[in-house]
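Data card: per-record layout.
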Amino acid sequence: MEVALRSRWNDAEAGRTPLEQLVYMSRIMGQDDALVLWGGGNTSVKVTDTDLLGRPIQLLLIKGSGSDMKAVRPTDFPAVRLEEIRASMTREDMSDAEMVAYLARCMDDPSAPRPSIETLLHGYLAADAVAHSHADAILSLTNTEAGRETVRRVYGDSVAVVDYRRPGFALAKEVSLRAQDSGLRGVVLMNHGLITWGDTARAAYEQHVTLVTEAEDFINCQRPPSRTPARARLAPTSVAAGRDVAARVAPALRAALSTQARKILRFDDSPDILKFLESPRARELAAIGPATPDHLLNTKRHPLFAEVGDPRNSGIVVNAIRRELDGYVQRYVDFYERYHSDEPLLDPAPRVVLVRGLGMWTAGRDVRSALIPADIYHHTIDVMAGAEAVDRYASLSEKDAFEAEYWPLELYKLTLAPPERELARRIVLVTGGARGIGAAIARRLAREGAHVVITDLNEAGAEAVAAEIVAAHGTGHAIAARLDVTDEESVASAFRLARLTYGGLDVLVSNAGVAHVAPIDSLSLTVWEQSLAVNATGHFLVAREALRLFKEQGLGGGMVFVATKNVPAPGKDFGAYSAAKAAEAQLARVLAIEGGESGIRVNMVNPDAVFEDSGLWSEDLRQQRASAYGIRADDLEDFYRQRNLLRVRVTPDDVAEAVLWLASDRSAKTTGAMIPVDGGVREAFPR
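The structure for this 687-residue chain is written out next.
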């Protein structure tokens, strides 16, 4: 374990008011993932305020349901009237539905966020400040076969121990009754976590840190159990070799996990994951269950665990996963049938996939929801290791696990997520994405929920666009890579990045291009070959790689080629460009023919005269095209605008809108199409 948790409290940063200190306590707890993960834990303070008539009133300020402690704001702490909360203690019973309705009526501001499901517990405690976490070290004590005795070995009688019970009215009453002993330092909830309190937020927090540190120290003093010796590392023996296999496996795994809806995958071969998988008891431990019920919605009760004879062979790995998956899904459905009443079946596919000798995949509807089970499982491994150091790891009963996973108050949190956007769950690779049309396409598709791999020879430019998307839409929604579309190895590397980062690909936007101007009789062979290499061969190489990946994945796919008005209507002195782009268009048509039976759609957009932020329209090209038309370079943009039927200026965003339609399910029955985005150039009408 060796976490060595220490207090982060700093009076100079904490603020002066109880609310400021509550926010501060919550953030420093939330920023310590040895205490809470991804929306877990909760905190509160009790304050005196005035009601609408100016009379004094006691309020409980408590973290809102689903709020992430590490980033909470004052508005994330709804106020509930304490007198009414405590009045409910006289009741003999209160169902979850009754509790939710009761809390809603106790809110000082009904428009505030829904208060934590543990509001009654916080309100019933006498102390002014309360802190609750799911600390790894505490779970390592409680999640053992001799859990109560293990806790007593560490704390004696200085903490109360409460058997596992789902949060709600009954647990709140039990904790309040057990916490009345003035000598107690806290309450340990079996298979759940720790509660501490104090007169101030600082006192509650520092008591929390003290108790968790004592648990860490106790665990670290135990000898590693001799019954879990290290196991010889299975091949592949290098990280690079393992990742090559993982890249080949990922698309098939993504398809296997996407029977109900597409998933985004995250591959993880961190040292702690590989070390855990090397243990001869890894499969046994993984089958025991989660560290805390709060994790179940993200991880399910068990991961899928695959044993492979030779992890260097991607085919063997895929077959092993598929065999395990059939059994996993059937066991989950049986588990559901044993305990359900009227709850609809959740997606039975695993959220965590462990492959001995290779690593871990986690799955979710987006990169964030794939990252959450990964983080949780890293901590689950730590909890298992701590528990095994002092006893034997244990978890919830099967029935308790079902009730936790299908608990309506936890499922409610899923309803807080915003509706999925049009390209949610989709992975897109854009070539030539550092600026101009490519950058606009990347930004537009990301706004609709796509996870975007932005590639360009200009790696710094691609990284800047990716950083902009991440800032707007969240960690992991875009990545960047240097890509030379004329180089097979460079193309393979970019697609390997998509496989490892997201699990596969759904849409290729083949946009990279170059333009040269010269009459045929003065066109050099070098320029001709360069144009063919980028504007024809480059599209072939990325399309071939995408086609292979789509077929491995078995989920269909889409390609959108950014061609040009010059395909149907070539321009003077644009021979190298027009001929190469015509080859691109013919390639796209053949791909539409060959990909159709696999559900792969291939379409084109034909922009014209897109000057904004363009890497194509260099100053030299502007001068040359202006000279060809006998006008000044400064008048070139207006010349192109005036020649189209609508007399409009075409922008990268205009092209991006057309690409969005072709990338989306709105065009699900369209393939082989060529869509002009040129304002209406009569001679370029598709024929």
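Known properties of this structure: The chain has three domains: 11-221, 239-410, 427-617+651-676. Residues 609 and 640 are 6 Å apart (CA to CA).

See the next section for split statistics.
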